[in-house]
Amino acid sequence: MNHDAYDDNYIRSILNNVKSIAMVGASPVNVRPSYFAFKYLAQRGYDMIPVNPGHVGKELMGKPFVASLADIGRPIDMIDIFRNSSHIMPVVEEALKLSPPPKVIWMQLGARDDAAAEKAEAAGLKVVMNRCPKIEYGRLSSEISWMGVNSRTLSSKRAPIPTQGMRLSLNRTSFGGGQTAASDRAAKNKTETT
Amino acid sequence: MTDRLPGFSTLAVHAGAQPDPTTGARATPIYQTTSFVFNDADHAASLFGLQAFGNIYTRIGNPTNAVLEERVAALEGGTAALAVASGHAAQLVVLQQLLKPGDEIIAARKLYGGSINQFTHAFKAFGWNVAWADPDEIESFERAVTPHTKAIFIESIANPAGSITDIEAIAAVARKAGVPLIVDNTLASPYLIKPIDHGADIVVHSLTKFLGGHGNSLGGIIVDAGTFDWSKDNKYPMLSEPRPEYHGIRIQETFGNFAFAIACRVLGLRDLGPALSPFNAFMILTGIETLPLRMQKHCDNAKAVAEFLSTHPAVSAVNYAGLPGDRYNALQRKYAPKGAGAVFTFSLKGGYDAGVNLVSNLKLFSHLANVGDTRSLVIHPASTTHSQLDDAAKVKSGAAPEVVRLSIGIEDKEDLIADLDQALRA
């Protein structure tokens, strides 16, 4: 897997197939990116579980916080890690101990740990790094185009009207896929120089 | 299946536009409305808090404008864009995100006269200083860098003489200085030059010119390349620091590689107010659909006219980068191989009076202060836009008394040449 530039079909298949997402590092503070992403994904129909030991006893959008992945107590399709790169490995190790293990490890925008990714992939998991599932969902469905964002997709079909709690079609025709975008080249250069 | 990359002409027609979800309308509807209803109080709060994607008020965003934004972002190879009321508004909004009073930009000396005025006078009143550098001497940019430098600003094809800028060399200076490179791509359009491929971090346009292309609608746009790391030091607090307007959100942390476009929208356009009319956005979108066809014709006509003028007995010099002997010809072949654009200058042996006579004798060319129209345009800067300058200042700004500027349209080139020939003989 080329973690510098994902093919849209890879991201699309993950977002189309996972149903439950545990968000590690979810915040109940409504100006944090994790809060935005949690709320957006919940409204798009994903079964969201907030994981943060500092907030056990509270709820996020009606879902009670759990302290750790082990405390979820049921199978989870995807772990979305809202932690800095230096805190990724322990979360991945904990995820790999779950039975059954999750299908996908997703590291948030700005987070990347290649060793942790390799470990998860060796165990048969799919890995996405340095991306936001909210942005990717919004991009592939073109919902994000309301903000002038280049979705890098085209469609000649009538668009669904986005409403809360509705799964949108992610199956538009992609172009670019990331491999030609200047932004992805810049991100790759940044990784190489740090 | 690997994703397929559509060609430029396909993007010019399709990018950003999809049949309307409600009516199935295939052309992009003109959403001529000031405001948009919320689903409920929670939805409203989510939109105002930047937590949900959606429309609030046309000063912040509009569905017609959003199609235009995505289309230009796609054509330029950027992550996102923001459409505004004019090219000048685009420059204002961009620099508001980057500069505080006492900060500086380095700008190429060869710029559209309106930009020189804006930087010299209006921005100076904000405490934003400009250091001028010579695009023909890259070292002059390096020498101008100070601890207060926040950006470098150039034109890809520069007004008035259509000179070609060495974007990659100046991008290297910007990278070394740790500041973004802003490229005004108005005279090239992304059909001829894609500055992001050459290292630009931000691209701005006057959409009024070749992108709209028909001389009927003002507009401007800002394209975010998604390449600049705004948070690596504390030089760009609008992007890296918690924003009090939005309860402490950090724009780059929240929006990643399209943070600059979002900052321009929610901090710049929202508070400064130069919003684009959805009607103008529609007119410009319609223009963009034919950009590749028009731009090639503009360039082919311009080259034919420049070749004609270069052999005309009344003409002493032609500045057109598409001519083999021109000093910018090598840069043109590198950066704009499809054509050198359609705006250029030439000099008359008869001086000031010959310039005035030419303009008054032309029958097809329109005498006005614009470029990038379907119609061919002419202006004699010394008697019009630059008439307030003394002769020395006129020469320095490329508006010497004998200089005439043309913007070549998409008429039949034989008719343009015949019109110039009769006017030069008259």
From TrEMBL, chain A:
Region Disordered, annotated ranges: 171-194
Amino acid composition bias (Basic and acidic residues), ranges on this chain: 185-194
Signal peptide: none
Transmembrane segments: none
Superkingdom in the source lineage: Bacteria
Pfam short name (any one): CoA_binding_2
Annotated CoA-binding domain residues: 15-111
SMART domains according to UniProt: CoA_binding
InterPro entries (alphabetical): CoA-bd, NAD(P)-bd_dom_sf
PANTHER family per the UniProt record, alphabetical: COA-BINDING DOMAIN-CONTAINING PROTEIN (PTHR33303:SF2), CYTOPLASMIC PROTEIN-RELATED (PTHR33303)
Protein name: CoA-binding domain-containing protein
Species of origin: Bradyrhizobium macuxiense
Automatic annotation (TrEMBL), chain B:
Keywords of this entry: Pyridoxal phosphate, Transferase
GO BP annotations, alphabetical order: cysteine biosynthetic process from serine; L-homocysteine biosynthetic process; transsulfuration
InterPro entries: Cys/Met-Metab_PyrdxlP-dep_enz (IPR000277), Cys_met_metab_PP (IPR054542), OAc-hSer/O-AcSer_sulfhydrylase (IPR006235), PyrdxlP-dep_Trfase (IPR015424), PyrdxlP-dep_Trfase_major (IPR015421), PyrdxlP-dep_Trfase_small (IPR015422)
GO molecular function terms listed in the Swiss-Prot or TrEMBL record: cysteine synthase activity; O-acetylhomoserine aminocarboxypropyltransferase activity; pyridoxal phosphate binding
Keyword Transferase: yes
Modification type N6-(pyridoxal phosphate)lysine: residues: K209
A Gene Ontology cellular-component term: cytoplasm
Pfam families xref list: Cys_Met_Meta_PP
Protein name as catalogued: O-acetylhomoserine sulfhydrylase
Cofactor field: pyridoxal 5'-phosphate
Annotated segments matching region Disordered: 1-25
Family the entry assigns: Belongs to the trans-sulfuration enzymes family.
